[in-house]
Amino acid sequence: MAKDYKKMLEKAKEVSKNAYAKYSKFHVGACVLASSGEEYVGCNMENASYGMALCAERNAISTAIANGEREIDVVAIYSPNMDDCTPCGACRQVIWEFSNRENPCVVVTEVNGKPKEYRIDELLPAGFDL
Helix, strand, or coil here: 113? Predict the structure, then answer.
């Protein structure tokens, strides 16, 4: 897959600055590449009722869905708080739901300033569909 992961990580880094992380102070940004070629960004948004928080990955995917997308190819995730910021379990399932089974979505994080790539079926080996 010849995608510009560095460019996507830069977009994720930029949007992570907009995170509303009042409680955890853990900022995350995500950039989603839809199968159409369009990119969508999102950041995490916390709430005093912790269960109502929204992760950056799901925020970006929701924006893609709201714009008519139904399949994603890549999710780039950046956090200034840690290297190799992989998605939580809920985000892994959402990424699985919207990835192409024949060419599973790639999740990219930054490690020591360089992109690191995972296939979603590596991160969620038993994802499920209805």
Answer: coil
